[in-house]
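Q: Can I see a sequence and its folded structure?
A: Here is a first one.
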Amino acid sequence: MNKKIAMSALSCAVLMAMGTAHAEDAKVNSIADAFTQGSAKVDLNFRYENVAQDNALKDADALTLRTRLTFATADYYGLSALVEFEDSRNVFGVDDYNDTLGKNPEYSVIADPNTTELDQAFLQYKRQGFKAKLGRQVIALGNQRFVGHVGWRQDRQTFDGITMQYAVDAFQVDYGYITKRNRIFAEAKDVRAKDHMFNASYNLGFGKVTGYGYLLEVDNDVKNGLDTYGVNFTGSTKLADTKVMYKAEYAKQESTTATTKYDADYLALEAGVGLAGFTIKGGYEKLGSDNGQYGFSTPLATLHKFNGWADQFLGTPNEGLVDLYASVGGKLMDGKWALAYHKFDADKSSATVDDLGSEIDVSFTLPIQKNYLLGIKYAAYSAGDAGAGKVDTDKVWVWANAKF
């Protein structure tokens, strides 16, 4: 905890030391004003989760409450600071689950361990389209397929490092250097890193084209590297009363260690329409394989958003993964509903692995005024070939969120 307190103190000290620059842009008159005119927020997420699997593990139940407290100063000559604490823990004694840290290994996994930690603590500078953050922070690039905050879990993912962004008109470029990955498993599985992230985009009006490079390396004195380069195009247009949506993305990846080198590619295609209050989409996503020995990897992604909510493919199989999916959603009362189907197959089939199963997902969320949200979600995964090592899995979530 001493390191966390030191980070917060350092941010405040740097803010005070730099407070004399660019006086003409000041929004407040003093350092004291920056704090007294700052904003405080509370975010509460109360959730029940049940996991039932067709194996020897006991069905898991978790009732957890996540509390997030955030304080952000006002801008002072382009500078500001933010500190945020996060607490997640079991409530009312409902804790029959494997929390991934050694608790209740006889139960199925629910990755919400008890934790209290510094979620964010950074110093920010903004001026004329330029923005920089130094410290612990949330990073969510694009649709979070490669870098995200894993916000579905109670302990979300953040990063230690520096990020910079420059935006002018339709052009934006982002760079980040990460020294630590603060993962979703409390502090027990945080990872020291030397990651570089490059992301540049241009808005064409009917869509945005983005080029990126993510050069990841775990800082453990062992040769390792995961380099990914790709391009994404995402957009939409109006045809009469119909909204047409489209996406295409391709990436190439190289994984290198002291003894091995693998190459794999990524391809995603999606199309959809919005009509008469309904949104219908269909897509194809391939996380390729290098001859059945290695599967395309996205270790920093918000993985729950992709390949089914049952989270059966948080790690890509060596045979790779092809996800053919369709979804439909719309409004019901004041809420939103969604239904999705996924068919999973191997990219490089083997003698024992070809069919990787299928999944049905359904959800409904209901906002109440502007501060409250109720939700329910269900995922049903049906296993494919036995050689894939998967089993039938059902997951249910019911939650209530409040923000002040």
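Q: Show me another, different protein.
A: A second, unrelated one:
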Amino acid sequence: MRARDKAAVSALRTTLAALDNAEAVPVGEAELRGSALEQSPVGAGATEAARCELSEQGVLAVVRAEADERLAAAAQLTAPAHAARAALLRAEAAVLLRFLEAPDRV
């Protein structure tokens, strides 16, 4: 990261966001409709919900999906004008795949 590896920074930022989204609590359809204003919760944190916690396998699945998504997008960019974007996507996927292959995952 000190070398300002743009591919690594981009891949890690978007993967962290994907992990954050995967830990979100699903919202039910009834909750989307809402209710009367006087019945709504009041106060700081009144609507907070505990986040789901992903297992190691769940985290690996999200990282693998992010890498696969980048490789699929790079494969679709076949025009010479998109060569730089395809190379960046492949570099981002390589960063993520290195984390999957690491024997000492944290």
